[in-house]
Amino acid sequence: MTMNERKTIDLEQGWEFMQKGITKLKNILEGLPEPQFSSEDYMMLYTTIYNMCTQKPPHDYSQQLYDKYRESFEEYISSTVLPSIREKHDEFMLRELVKRWSNHKVMVRWLSRFFHYLDRYFIARRSLPPLNEVGLTCFRDLVYTELNGKVRDAVITLIDQEREGEQIDRALLKNVLDIFVEIGMGQMDYYENDFETAMLKDTAAYYSRKASNWILEDSCPDYMLKAEECLKREKDRVSHYLHSSSEPKLLEKVQHELLSVYANQLLEKEHSGCHALLRDDKVEDLSRMFRLFSKIPRGLDPVSNIFKQHVTAEGTALVKLAEDAASNKKAEKRDVVGLQEQVFVRKVIELHDKYLAYVNDCFQNHTLFHKSLKEAFEVFCNKGVAGSSSAELLATFCDNILKKGGSEKLSDEAIEEMLEKVVKLLAYISDKDLFAEFYRKKLARRLLFDKSANDDHERSILTKLKQQCGGQFTSKMEGMVTDLTLARENQTSFEEYLSNNPNANPGIDLTVTVLTTGFWPSYKSFDLNLPAEMVKCVEVFREFYQTKTKHRKLTWIYSLGTCNLLGKFESRTTELIVTTYQASALLLFNSSDRLSYSEIMTQLNLSDDDVVRLLHSLSCAKYKILNKEPNTKTISPTDHFEFNSKFTDKMRRIKIPLPPVDEKKKVIEDVDKDRRYAIDASIVRIMKSRKVLGHQQLVLECVEQLGRMFKVHNTLFSFLFFFFVFVCESFVFLNLTTLALNEMLILQPDFKAIKKRIEDLITRDYLERDKSNPNMFRYLA
Amino acid sequence: MKMRRSVSRKTGQTNSTDATDLFRSASSKASSKEMERIDNLFYSYANKSSGMIDPEGIESLCSDIEVSHTDVRILMLAWKMKAEKQGYFTLEEWRRGLKALRADTVNKLKKALPDLEKEVKRPTNFQDFYAFAFRYCLTEEKQKSVDIESVCELLGLVLGSQYRAQVDYLIEYLKIQSDYKVINMDQWMGFYRFCNEISFPDFNNYDPNLAWPLVLDNFVEWMKAKQT
């Protein structure tokens, strides 16, 4: 049979034939006993359609077939499918729906194969929806439109049942929800609008109810456990039957209802909230808290705040503890940094270690918590204890670690670790320049009196300080350490010189340490009247020094010297190790048996302070080398002294210490002075270049200039830490503008201090206030 | 007196230049007479050897014009004279002051005082007077600041009538604080600006971030602490 000879199929006729095929299909779907389609069946059906579409008009029935195709579905759905679903409810309804949907898809597949020819030309030509789409649309318009509400409600009910702990048919739900997705034919609109929105709303309501109960009944850790569990389950739910796109929205809802809404109440629960957890070191619960709160917007802010408050309180308590212990000390020991203060520093280090671990572990190294830790430490680390500033305490702590016979007896590694931690603490101290000064003074003592326990440690801490605070912070200290090495070499040449020039030899072993002025703390050099023997020593060294260099000036610091004397007592000769001052006083008794206080003072040419101290150490302390008349415990200007020939001690060699003058006040004064100079210099520099400047601008630029490398910390303007200029001692301040910026140390500026300096500069005619605008200043050349 | 009569007789005259000439010479004669009287008055109080009116002379002047020598009006008089040294008036200063006040007798001087007060209180003049009051206290050479006690007295004298409350509190504060033992010109001028511009006693428009002298920042802090 050729195309041309094909017999025309009449529409009714053809459709009757097709109808049989469709009915067969329906029977199969209904589960009635019906044999499957054979290939022939299929071919016949397909060809029928083909023929009816390719016939010449008016017998080309494409349009009619297209319509009938759709009508087939409509008829089937209306007569059979819909009623069968309608008569069922809840879970049964869902099952029926799933079955019918599955059937429908099969029906669409088969029918669209039969009618496939329409897809090839007719549809494209008329820009009509393809067969597949037509089929699915029928289901959507007839079944889905009517039933989606009920279906949704049934699904949500099941979900809530599962939430309450009941077992439900997850596979069923997955299939139902797949309908919502597939019915969109590529778009998620139906799923989102007809199911997801309501589901989210229901979820929110569900968890809101739960949360309102739990928050009253449960402790914070228990609540958090529940919350974490809920979130886990919801996530699980998504993976099993919800569409993956629902996950973020769903979790967000749950987090909101469980956490955001009750965040504050949860954190502030009296016996189990954040404060309590920190107090009781509940690391696990805190980790959980972090995990949960990091998910909600700004959730971590209150947590980090409470953390900060807690650490601050702990630190402040340590300060108070130390203060209380210190106030129980005896009055005369009050100025000396004692054991309690050492303990305090160690405890602060421990506190830091503990909470740094928290930040790293519980709080997963989050910047917010690093910041809280830092701010907390900055608050209490800057509180002094018993009149000693934190800067001094730290410096003393270091001294104790580094000096021989210090109170800290630790292994080398432990020392390194400790030094590392101390330097880290320094970051929190605002008066770093004060620390530097104290540290320098104590370093000088250690170096000059050979009290340094270990050179490597000395260098190591300087390296650490350099890394943390910059090279200029440590340059002087490094200079000091180098000076000693040079001094030893110098001494060797001096001894060579002496052996080469025997008549120059003063007859006494002399060791001289030459220091570079700029590096070392300033020492007052009094014009001590040296005993004749020592005068010769000084001269000899001076001559030697001239041979080495003519351009330097030597200033002798007798207050730092030590002497070894042989005391010829009646019982035996004892070697006495004393300071030069003490030695000079003792040697006076070689030519006089008895001397008065004023005679000693005149002959030595020292101040009252020094004389009282040294006489006390020789007559009222542990070793009575001199006898005092009257034999009281304190020195008074009317006392008289005699050599105590009856003195005896079992040791051949004794050291008679001279307690050092308290440096604390001087250090603070020096640092204050340096700061004032630094601020003055900065202000003048700025005004010189700007000529006219407003007050606020001037303060800002001053702060910026002084804090160029680090940032400035102040509550008014909320900057962070900063440097200032420390001016070298040997300059004379006639003209501030030519000050060289030799050193930069670190300081926290006081805005009042800057204002005060401006006023001072006005009085000194460097600046004036503008006549018309009192907030402006002019530079006076 | 004679002069005036002869001038008035001449008013009928048509020759105006003659009249002005006469008037001028008459007034210059009048003014030189006035100057003479002023000078005589000066010498009646002046110390014979120094040629200046000294503190004693000022005291007797004060009793003559019936004003206490601690009264602010004497200070105003000194201002009018542009007197340089506290407690002393030179002839030049005396002439300057009395001429400006048009007073050549003690009576006239006394009567000129109320007008002088009004003149000083005019805002344009007051600032100048206020600054003058401070400078007048700088008695030593190269002195730049005045001690707190004197400043307190001066404040009361100069600003007391206008800003009683502020001045009283400020004086109380200055006496108990220990940051400053002396006050300089800049701070002094700051006090006036403060009384003038800042609302009292709430200090609502006071901003310590501006260039107010630090002593005033501290004063406001102290006041606020007191008020709580």
UniProtKB/TrEMBL annotation, chain A:
Keyword Glycosyltransferase carried by entry: no
The UniProt transmembrane annotation reads 716-736
Q: Name one Pfam family in it.
A: Cullin
Q: Does the keyword ATP-binding apply?
A: no
Molecular-function annotations in GO: ubiquitin protein ligase binding
| UniProt xrefs under Gene3D superfamilies | Cullin Repeats (1.20.1310.10), Cullin, Chain C, Domain 2 (3.30.230.130), Winged helix-like DNA-binding domain superfamily/Winged helix DNA-binding domain (1.10.10.10)
Q: Which domain of life is it from?
A: Eukaryota
Keywords (alphabetical) are: Membrane, Transmembrane, Transmembrane helix, Ubl conjugation
Q: Which GO terms describe its cellular component?
A: cullin-RING ubiquitin ligase complex
Which PROSITE patterns does the protein's record reference? CULLIN_1, CULLIN_2
Tell me which InterPro entries the record gives: Cullin (IPR045093), Cullin-like_AB (IPR059120), Cullin_CS (IPR016157), Cullin_homology (IPR016158), Cullin_homology_sf (IPR036317), Cullin_N (IPR001373), Cullin_neddylation_domain (IPR019559), Cullin_repeat-like_dom_sf (IPR016159)
Q: Which SMART domains match?
A: CULLIN, Cullin_Nedd8
The residue range of the signal peptide is: none
Q: Which family does it belong to?
A: Belongs to the cullin family.
Identification of the protein by name: Cullin family profile domain-containing protein
From TrEMBL, chain B:
The superkingdom of the source organism is Eukaryota
**Pfam families from the xrefs?**
Cullin_binding
- Region spans: Disordered: 1-26
A molecular function (GO) term = ubiquitin-like protein binding
What's an example GO cellular component term for this entry?
ubiquitin ligase complex
Q: Which GO terms describe its biological process?
A: protein neddylation
Q: Which portions of the chain have biased composition (kind: Polar residues)?
A: 9-19
Q: What region holds the DCUN1 domain?
A: 33-224
- Show the coiled coil region(s): none
- Give a short account of what the protein does: Neddylation of cullins play an essential role in the regulation of SCF-type complexes activity.
Q: What is this protein called?
A: Defective in cullin neddylation protein
For this protein's source organism, the top of the classification is: Eukaryota, Viridiplantae, Streptophyta, Embryophyta, Tracheophyta
